[in-house]
């Protein structure tokens, strides 16, 4: 049976998640998984590049360096699996987003992590650059995972919502009735703002288990100001990233409310994630919400989401047979499979593209 590798690093820039997987009908079997955290130096350089502090030379170097790390993640996940490289049909590599600007006169999205380096180092066909074709067809180029969610997580008997809590939060709503369209979009920040504020104030890249936030209380005035950001009330299709929701955004909000203790700000940012997700969900009564991504590991965030959704059932994608940390990398393995089989990878009703498109560029073995 063909096996596939998915490589993903999201807006959190915490590191590269790699998975080696095979697909059978509506199920994905994980043979091995592996994560390479970004070395601090690389994370700082990537963050600086996102903040427009990088020259073209620096961006070129980062493209090669991250490509090498993506290749290393692929090589190590193959070693963990015990399978020979010849058993792997292809690698789907998302790359590292430096900028995502889906609106404006000339929309664009930039992912680095040189795919030629990956295919050269592994000897395996690599598929990358998944977002730009959707964008060229008038779409947001994001989110792309809803097509995978639809293919693997739909049910005849219940409406399902998949909630991914990465740097950015995105939801996919899959009605039980197959003739109804799937809805999916980025709701706004999940961890991005909490991570940015935590790093700025404590030097730590994230607030482990929400401990620091739990020392603070929600400032309702700050929260309602934050919730008035136009992104939250915009109709889908929509997608966003660190170019909007970043430390500057937090500092601008906070500057209007002097003297709020730093831990209260952290706690308020957590509540912003909860409120912005919950406000943008469709009817929640009886809805089953399956969460995934790093935010699902934050017990305070999960408890607050549960509190805000008394009518819904909140669980993890593990209840659907897929490890919450592996959903995104598995989706990119599947997108590589779709590309090589000449099948579409986007859902036009989600991204707003003018039609289904085969996504990705192929870098042969
Ligand atoms: N134990 C934890 N407690 C709190 N937050 C966590 C924990 N583990 C992971 N996270 C959060 O999850 C983020 C990474 O999630 P991930 O799904 O990899 O996002 P992305 O797709 O943006 O890379 C981290 O930056 C951190 O904010
Ligand atoms: Mg990550």
Textual characterization of the structure:
This protein is an alpha/beta fold. It folds into two domains: 3-142 and 325-363, Nucleotidyltransferase, domain 5; 145-320, 2-Layer Sandwich (Nucleotidyltransferase, domain 5), CATH 3.30.420.40. The protein is 39% helix and 22% strand. It is built from 14 helices and 13 strands. The protein has helices spanning 40-50, 56-81, 115-122, 131-136, 145-153, 192-202, 211-214, 220-227, 230-233, 247-255, 262-280, 299-308, 327-340, 348-351, and strands at 3-8, 15-24, 27-37, 88-93, 96-101, 108-112, 126-128, 160-165, 168-174, 183-189, 288-292, 313-316, 361-363. The chain has a six-stranded mixed beta sheet with strand order 3-2-1-4-7-13. A five-stranded mixed beta sheet has the order 10-9-8-11-12, with helices on both faces. A two-stranded antiparallel sheet has the order 5-6. A hairpin with a 2-residue loop joins strand 8 and strand 9. Helix 2 (56-81) runs parallel beside helix 3 and helix 6 (192-202) runs antiparallel to helix 11. The protein is globular, with a radius of gyration of 20 Å. The two termini are 19 Å apart. The relative contact order is 0.17. The model has no long low-confidence stretch (mean pLDDT 97). The site of magnesium ion has 5 residues, from loops. Magnesium ion binds at residues 9-10, 12, 14, 17.
């Amino acid at each position: 049976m063909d096996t596939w590798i998915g490589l993903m690093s999201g807006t959190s820039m915490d590191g590269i998640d790699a998975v080696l997987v095979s697909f059978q009908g509506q199920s994905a079997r994980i043979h091995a998984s592996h994560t390479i955290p970004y070395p601090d130096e690389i994370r700082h350089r990537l963050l600086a590049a996102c903040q427009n502090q990088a020259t073209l030379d620096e961006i070129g170097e980062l493209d090669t360096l991250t490509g090498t790390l993506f290749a290393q993640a692929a090589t190590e996940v193959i070693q963990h699996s015990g399978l020979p490289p010849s058993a792997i049909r292809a690698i789907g590599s998302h790359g590292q987003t430096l900028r995502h600007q889906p609106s404006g006169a000339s929309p664009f999205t930039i992912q680095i992590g040189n795919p030629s380096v990956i295919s050269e180092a592994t000897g395996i066909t690599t598929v990358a650059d998944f977002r730009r074709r959707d964008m060229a067809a008038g779409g947001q180029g994001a989110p792309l995972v809803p097509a995978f969610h639809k293919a693997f997580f739909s049910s005849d008997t219940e409406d399902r919502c998949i909630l991914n809590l990465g740097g950015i939060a995105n939801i996919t709503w899959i009605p039980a009735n197959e003739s109804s369209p799937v809805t999916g979009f980025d709701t706004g920040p999940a961890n991005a703002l909490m991570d940015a504020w935590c790093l700025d104030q404590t030097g730590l890249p994230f607030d482990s288990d929400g401990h620091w936030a739990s020392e603070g209380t929600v400032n309702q005035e700050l929260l309602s100001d934050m919730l008035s950001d136009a992104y939250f009330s915009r109709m889908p299709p929509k997608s966003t990233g660190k170019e909007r929701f970043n430390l500057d955004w937090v500092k601008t909000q906070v500057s209007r409310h002097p003297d709020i203790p730093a831990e209260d700000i952290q706690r308020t940012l957590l509540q912003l994630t909860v409120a912005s997700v919950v406000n943008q969900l469709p009817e929640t009564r009886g809805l089953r919400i399956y969460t995934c991504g790093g935010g699902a590991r934050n017990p305070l965030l999960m408890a607050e989401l549960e509190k805000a959704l008394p009518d819904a059932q909140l669980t993890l994608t593990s209840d659907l047979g897929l490890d919450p940390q592996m959903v995104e990398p598995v989706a990119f393995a599947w997108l590589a499979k779709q590309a090589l089989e000449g099948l579409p990878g986007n859902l036009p009703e989600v991204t707003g593209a003018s039609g289904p498109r085969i996504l990705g560029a192929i870098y042969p073995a």
